[in-house]
Write a structure and sequence with these properties.
Length: 252
């Protein structure tokens, strides 16, 4: 797990791991190695023995990391064998309740009135939450301060405390805090509204036509993992994803 505990990818990994243990009878250990914009954990997975005993759950960051870092210690494509895509979800534009804005338009106006003063958190440099906010910054011409963390979990902790004022948080790691009113949400980053939060408008609806920055999650194995093992993992993980208990937990 190339992220710290508590974020969307971590929650997915733990849900899948628990179901694999229940359904297949073997123990799944979640090894959180956050840091470096997922580079640390991804490098460990890329260099692991290709026997099916070490796999990694990545997010869409994996697809863009090579364009953000000149000298990666691994090849994001050639050093991995794709196993299965497990989920996709929008990010939520969430604010600390102290921020006096109730819409994306009001947030942009506030940011322009206070250039270089509002702090936004992200799951790490080059992560989905970072790039989602940078896209909005570019389109809205806002000046915000970026503070990267080792995952969504620790970023949300500082957002809840008010040390950070806003972030694009993963749906899985953020929505529960919105429902409990510890955070307020302005919009979702997907092209269409989410069925999980249908009352939240999209950023595109909120005055920024064409905006879209959803996140996907997938499982990879080290390159040269035997095809039969990859196929077995694919079948077993899909079985967990189709299990009603896991689907209900993720929807909740």
């Amino acid at each position: 797990m190339p992220y710290a505990p508590g974020g969307g990818a971590d929650t997915l990994a733990r849900g899948i791991g628990q179901k694999l243990t229940e359904m297949q009878g073997y123990t799944v250990v979640i090894d959180n190695r956050g840091g470096g914009g997922t580079i640390l954990g991804s490098d460990l997975a890329a260099k692991a023995r290709p026997d099916g005993h070490t796999i990694i759950l990545v997010a869409s960051t994996h697809a863009v990391v090579s364009s953000l870092h000149r000298n990666l210690p691994y090849d994001p494509i050639n050093d991995f064998s794709p196993v299965v895509r497990v989920a996709s979800a929008p990010n939520i534009l969430a604010l600390h309740p102290s921020v006096p804005a109730s819409s994306v338009k009001e947030l942009v106006e506030l940011a322009k009135a206070r250039p270089g003063q509002l702090v936004y958190a992200s799951s790490g440099n080059g992560g989905g939450s970072h790039l989602a906010m940078e896209l909005l910054k570019s389109m809205a011409r806002m000046d915000l301060i970026h503070v990267p963390y080792k995952g969504t979990g620790p970023a949300v902790i500082d957002l809840l405390s008010g040390q950070a004022k806003l972030m694009f948080g993963g749906m899985i790691g953020t929505l529960s805090h919105v429902k409990s009113a510890r955070l307020k949400a302005l919009a979702v980053s997907s092209a269409k509204r989410s069925p999980v939060a249908p009352d939240l408008p999209t950023v595109a609806e909120s005055g920024f036509s064409g905006y879209e920055a959803a996140t996907w999650y997938g499982v990879l194995a080290p390159a040269r993992t035997p095809v039969a093992i990859v196929a077995k993992l694919n079948t077993e993980i899909i079985a967990t994803l189709n299990h009603p208990d896991l689907r209900q937990r993720m929807a909740g």
